[in-house]
Amino acid sequence: MRIVVPAIGSRGDVQPYVALCQGLQRAGHQAILAANPTMCGLVTSYEVECAPVGPPVDMGLEGARIWTRAGKNWWLGFMRIMQLGFRLVKEAYPDILKLCRDADVVVTTDAAAGAAEAVKLGLPWVSVTLQPDRIPVPDPSPSLVSRIVWPILGALMMAPLNRFRRGVGVPPVEGMSGVLSERLTLVPISPHVSPPDPRWEPHNHVTGYWIAQQPEVWTPPQDIQAFLEAGDRPIAVSLGAMSLAGEQTREAAGLTLEAIQQAGVRAIVQGWHEILADADLPETVYHAGPMPHTWLFDQVRAVVHHGGFGTTGSALRAGVPAIVVPHIIDQHLWAKRVHELGAGPEPVPRAKLTTERLVEAITQAVGDDQMREKAAELGRQIREEPDGVTVAVRLIEEAACT
What we know:
- The chain is α/β, with parallel strands linked by helices.
- It has 2 domains: 2-208 and 385-400, 3-Layer(aba) Sandwich (Rossmann fold); 222-383, Glycogen Phosphorylase B (Rossmann fold, 3-Layer(aba) Sandwich).
- The protein is built from 15 helices and 12 strands.
- The protein has helices at 11-26, 40-45, 59-69, 74-100, 115-121, 144-167, 222-229, 247-263, 273-276, 293-296, 309-318, 330-340, 355-367, 369-383, 388-400; strands at 2-6, 30-35, 49-52, 105-108, 125-128, 185-187, 204-206, 235-238, 267-270, 285-288, 303-305, 322-324.
- The strands form 2 sheets. Strands 3-2-1-4-5-6-7 form a 7-stranded parallel beta sheet, with helices on both faces. A 5-stranded parallel beta sheet has the order 10-9-8-11-12, with helices on both faces.
- The longest helix is centred in the N-terminal third of the chain and has 27 residues, at 74-100.
- It is globular, with a radius of gyration of 21 Å.
- It starts with a strand and ends with a helix.
- The model has no long low-confidence stretch (mean pLDDT 88).
């Protein structure tokens, strides 16, 4: 089969679908990941075919800039990031439509790119969501998220989305669940982290995490190996696109470095390149560039991260406690879940981040035996699960034949 997977967004929005496309390729299918041109280098580095769609905009970098310009106005930053995402989906439509004309199946993501195209062309399509709370359930006592958050997000998304759908000759949808496939919806999360809801319709499936396979054996730089061998096992700090640049991130970098020293730990720090590239760092801190989290998190005893979907999964899979510093949207939900599972201290939201709070969280993560044991056991359970990509490929194949 020729399968088109439109994934519009930042690296965190694209990475899971790299793993899915690898699995589809191994099963003998032609998988084409349609992504922003700025993401094609990442995609092809995993030996996955990438089709550039829309104008070249690095959503991770632009999102970080929007977030910085919004200052402490969380809502303004969120709205502008949402508008950027929808604009990129709309601008990618002609390219995705052209790709889909020769497709047998379309796999859509949370950005909904590809759904209108599949409906317009009469193609079978399946959907993937990284946010299990988006799947509708009959619930007489809905959670706060289901009752308030998703309806608000739905209202913000549905008006421009339905204008777009009408403009291309596709029927409008009702609510955020309207952009989820009734044929098959996949949730690439460990059931130990987010169990399937028994109230879901049977076409919704939790598959397990999707982990991309490096096309070649990745070799760490010699200097990081030397750092690891020079002292105690470090922690890792990886805040994703939220650590790119700007005054707020400069402040966060400063207090994080101070917290590392006060907590008396060694650390491998990713991000903050404009800030730390020429900084005079202590010997206890190694400033790292991009590297596979599947390797990095296996080398450390705790991870400080932003609560992004992929980073959360990688940290849980590694079996080490996580200190989550959520910035926006679903990061807060994953931060809460990590704490509920006993795999990390209480989250430290970015708006409340201080040196003192981070020192306390780091100290607890590396010193609480019960927390370390819970994180290690959860990591073992995740690693022993059936491969999530293999499960997803089988379900897609079955759905394509119905």
